[in-house]
UniProtKB/TrEMBL annotation:
<feature type="binding site">
    <location>
        <position position="39"/>
    </location>
    <ligand>
        <name>Zn(2+)</name>
    </ligand>
</feature>
<dbReference type="InterPro" id="IPR036874">
    <property type="entry name" value="Carbonic_anhydrase_sf"/>
</dbReference>
<dbReference type="InterPro" id="IPR045066">
    <property type="entry name" value="Beta_CA_cladeB"/>
</dbReference>
<dbReference type="GO" id="GO:0015976">
    <property type="term" value="P:carbon utilization"/>
</dbReference>
<feature type="binding site">
    <location>
        <position position="41"/>
    </location>
    <ligand>
        <name>Zn(2+)</name>
    </ligand>
</feature>
<feature type="binding site">
    <location>
        <position position="101"/>
    </location>
    <ligand>
        <name>Zn(2+)</name>
    </ligand>
</feature>
<comment type="similarity">
    <text>Belongs to the beta-class carbonic anhydrase family.</text>
</comment>
<keyword id="KW-0456">Lyase</keyword>
<dbReference type="Pfam" id="PF00484">
    <property type="entry name" value="Pro_CA"/>
</dbReference>
<dbReference type="InterPro" id="IPR001765">
    <property type="entry name" value="Carbonic_anhydrase"/>
</dbReference>
<keyword id="KW-0479">Metal-binding</keyword>
<protein>
    <recommendedName>
        <fullName>Carbonic anhydrase</fullName>
        <ecNumber>4.2.1.1</ecNumber>
    </recommendedName>
</protein>
<dbReference type="InterPro" id="IPR015892">
    <property type="entry name" value="Carbonic_anhydrase_CS"/>
</dbReference>
<keyword id="KW-0862">Zinc</keyword>
<dbReference type="GO" id="GO:0008270">
    <property type="term" value="F:zinc ion binding"/>
</dbReference>
<feature type="binding site">
    <location>
        <position position="98"/>
    </location>
    <ligand>
        <name>Zn(2+)</name>
    </ligand>
</feature>
<comment type="function">
    <text>Reversible hydration of carbon dioxide.</text>
</comment>
Length: 221
């Protein structure tokens, strides 16, 4: 804990004074642009990864970046999605998987999770992605099979997301856009889903038309 306590002290001493105006604004409310649903994995640091500021992202994290299909059973992920869309009026939702994902390794081999029954049950929400890879991934090496699973899981969770009434209504009104990403931790690359054909390509290519202005004139400069 001393490492984290020292980090708080450095934040208060070195960072907060320079950002006092931002935090004063944030102290009165939030207006995030996007809901980011990603894995709880400690290696994913969204502020660093997206170069975003406090207040930019509303974040949901869980094992496997999973979105349970909508049901009448209330859960933390369901409530957060509803609040983000209906209460905060967010315009974008990103579901972001990542390489070397322990949750997806567990989804492939649930028989190894007997000591973690809640984890095993939770990963049942990724079962369809596993079965798709089993059905169409013959002949792939282990690396490519895992990449296919990461991509299929992101697509599956996007489909689950569309069953949530708040999401369905916002999309029908043209107020909400969904995005699927896979983050390669070792390479620093993020692949984005093209929902027209199910392919993934680098963020720099997928969003090329929108990127130029932001790269030349970052909004927080």
């Amino acid at each position: 804990m001393p490492k984290f306590a020292a980090g708080v002290v450095r934040f208060q001493r070195d960072v907060f004074p320079d950002k006092r105006e931002l935090f004063a604004k944030l102290s009165t409310g939030q207006k995030p642009e996007a809901l980011f649903i990603t894995c709880s994995d400690s290696r994913i640091e969204l502020g660093m990864l997206t170069q975003s500021q406090p207040g930019d992202l509303f974040v949901v994290r869980n094992a496997g970046n999973i979105v349970p299909p909508h049901s009448n059973t209330t859960g933390a992920t369901t409530a957060a999605i509803e609040f983000a869309v209906t209460g905060l009026g967010i315009e974008h939702i990103v579901i972001c998987g990542h390489t070397d994902c322990g949750a997806m390794k567990g989804a492939i081999a649930p028989e190894k999770l007997d000591a973690m029954p809640h984890v095993r049950d939770w990963l049942g929400y990724a079962r369809a992605a596993v079965e798709i890879v089993d059905a169409i991934g013959d002949g792939l090496n282990d690396h490519d099979r895992m990449l296919m699973l990461l991509e299929q899981n992101v697509m599956l969770q996007l489909n689950h997301l569309k069953t949530h009434p708040a999401v369905a209504v916002a999309m029908a009104r043209g107020k909400l856009t969904l995005h699927g990403w896979v983050y390669d931790i070792g390479e620093g690359e993020i692949l984005a889903l093209d929902d027209r054909d199910g392919s993934f390509s680098p963020v720099s290519k997928h969003y090329a038309a929108e990127l130029a202005g932001y790269l030349d004139h970052p909004p927080h400069d």
